[in-house]
Design goal:
The chain contains 24 helices and 14 strands. The chain is an alpha/beta fold and 524 residues long.
Length: 524
Amino acid sequence: MNDLYSFLENVSQNSDFNAELSKRGGFVTFSNSGKRGGIKYFQIGLDNILQTLKDILEHLDVFCHLTKYKEKEWRDNGSAYFTDSVANANSTVQTKPLFSTLSKVIMWGNQPRLNGINPDEFIELDESSLNNAISKLEVVAKSFSPKSSEQEDDNKETPRQNIQLQGIDFSINKICQTILSTGLIYSDTLIKRLVYSLMAKPFAILSGLAGSGKTQLALAFAKCLSENIEEQVCTVSIGADWTNLEPLLGYPNALKNDEYVKPESGVLQLLMRANADPTNPYFLILDEMNLSVVERYFADFLSAMESGEPIKLWDHESEDVPQEILLPKNVFIIGTINVDETTYMFSPKVLDRANVIEFKIAADEMDEYLGKKVNINLESAYSACADMAVDFVNKAKSQVEKDDKNKDVLLSFFRELKKVNAEFGYRTVNEISRYLHFANGDLEDDAAMDTAILQKLLPKLHGSRKKLVPVLAAMWKLCLKAGITKEIEADFNKDDFKYPESAEKIQRMCHAVIDNGFTSFAEA
């Protein structure tokens, strides 16, 4: 029940205070209970409701204590804080009907999580619930915006498509709130790293402990941003026997020259839909990528990412399958990898083309998981952020100027990596610049640079003890705060470092190479 009209119509059946979205014009008609005489009807615009929700959010310290209906408090605070004149007037003369209407709108913006609330008596007033309701209501309000006669003639889309294309600005905080509302346990920073990485380049690899939530995070992000999940999200489990491109893109039928066999994985179909719909995001999730040698089945994708050239499919052409297909910029690829005796090592060629995000579970996170009952409800996130999808794609496609602010830091790491022939190229610099650009203003400068080093530079390191110990020790020192001297064998203290996440990983890699004689980023 995603549309506001149906939601209000349904929830008002069991309410004393009716609220109904007008079929023509952006207004909600609501009524009193009629207990003191005949039922009276009132009308309030969607923009009036939007401003009122924003006023409540701005003065949340006052309203957060008013989740249970108290007439005097709601009347007095509505009069004092509602800047919209219509809502202000209704709050003083029709206090409870307005309260019930606001509660229903917030319920709709957070369904199904809040569907059990009695809107005549209670209202959910926390920052996340208000932001969700405001974001969704803005999309509905925009759908009632008048069009020029020229737009009326030219625009042949359905009302639902119009709403989707208008959309709202991308909000990383709403993404975090939506994913965490499912019951999944991640840090905000981990979610942001994935999102900013995909905006910097539409290919990310999630590495780490089996069962740590890599695939679930990829699915939660993809599905919350997709309006039509079945069409926009394709999840593929990599087979251990994959030796070529056929499981992903199909193959020409050797017995029938004019026939092409499409893959059961659905990847080719996803790419064709994405090419036909360049404004919306499409997601390809490759689960356990290193069960087979990646280059055997993924080399054409890696090449297409950099060259922009299409992938050749066959020599013929039909209505169903073209001769070649582009890897469009609105396709975002998320791969997951586990490292054990059943998997293959990732080559530097693959790692160099992705942001590699390592999943770890801290003791306090495990304590939190063990100490509370966790109810996972992934469906609550489905399409919850689809109204931001167009802006997400636009940002991912946008050009970013290279920032020279971190020039000295990158040069220092370049010199150390070059000593073991693991230096990075111009592509890596550009991708780091994009990542820092999108993280700017959200992650602190040092924290953003720290995760950029961790995701783009350290994955290049692999080799023997003799080769790696000197460079690891040198890079450890680059992570220390100015004026602090500390050997890599010393106990780790986060406060000693400008780049603590990278330093901790470097120390773990150093311990691993000393103990085992060999290490790599994925094995540490």
